[in-house]
């Protein structure tokens, strides 16, 4: 009689086997963050040799064009492929006229960067809030932010950025129809190959406070809740993303990132387009403040946050940590 040996199965699963050494952990790692994932934001202002620190964002400054060029030139060897520019104008008016002036601060910065660091992808924020004396993202009449009259100004702004050399334009104003208005203006001027990165699902978030200091863009009255999204709405975010894609957005975005990882995941599962997430100023400021007090390890927590954003589904991460994170990842 032949006897068979019965295979005894383990009584429980041992998932720790693949965590035993750094090399094993690396081999089975599901999410890998690299400097190529990052877009570094900068705030550019008039003058020369200007480096004006932003008090709520340690390590972040308003920079004149000459110093911006130096910073971006130093960023390129770290492997960060793109920058996102915000302008701080010389003067403001009700219609934000410097936003679309040929010699506006962003237009000058774009031209200088493309001359000095031609391989860097230069993305420009398209919004009026930094340039208007009322601080809102659109034309204001009797206390109301008007949607359709704003579209023409945004299209002019985007076109002026592209004519200066911008590689990608990124409308952040949250006016309905802004993407198609910009797409039509660019196409009509022969810029059919210029991509649009839409701030597709941009929430009316309390995490923007430090940014408003950096960009000098706080609204003088009211708030932006009539055009930016209600933080409580996830399904509406999908509608905004789908509308942006229909209107011609090549890249879509969720902003902020850390408190909206569920939205990032939902968008990733819904659309095949490249997806950006904005690791915003308040998220950055919290990490910096806690690290300065010795409450957490800045390097470890920053890389964990960036990994979480990518794990949720983001392809691109706009982050003020870009230079530091790129150095840490390359170490």
Which descriptors would you attach to this protein?
TIM Barrel; 11 helices; two-stranded antiparallel sheet; 331 residues; 12 strands
The level-1 CATH class: Alpha Beta
N-to-C span: 64 Å
Based on the coordinates given, report the CATH architecture. Alpha-Beta Barrel
The CATH topology: TIM Barrel
Q: Structural class, please? A: alpha/beta
Number of strands: 12
Structure description:
The structure is a single chain. The protein has 331 residues and is an alpha/beta fold. The protein has one domain (32-330): TIM Barrel (Alpha-Beta Barrel), CATH 3.20.20. It contains eleven helices and twelve strands. The chain has helices at 22-27, 65-75, 105-116, 147-164, 178-188, 209-215, 235-247, 261-270, 281-292, 298-312, 322-330, and strands at residues 38-45, 51-53, 61-64, 82-88, 121-126, 139-141, 144-146, 168-171, 201-202, 252-255, 275-279, 316-319. The strands form two sheets. Strands 1, 2, 3, 4, 5, 8, 9, 10, 11 and 12 form a ten-stranded mixed β-sheet that branches. A two-stranded antiparallel ribbon has the order 6-7. Helix 2 packs across helix 3. It is globular, with a radius of gyration of 22 Å. The N and C termini lie far apart (64 Å).
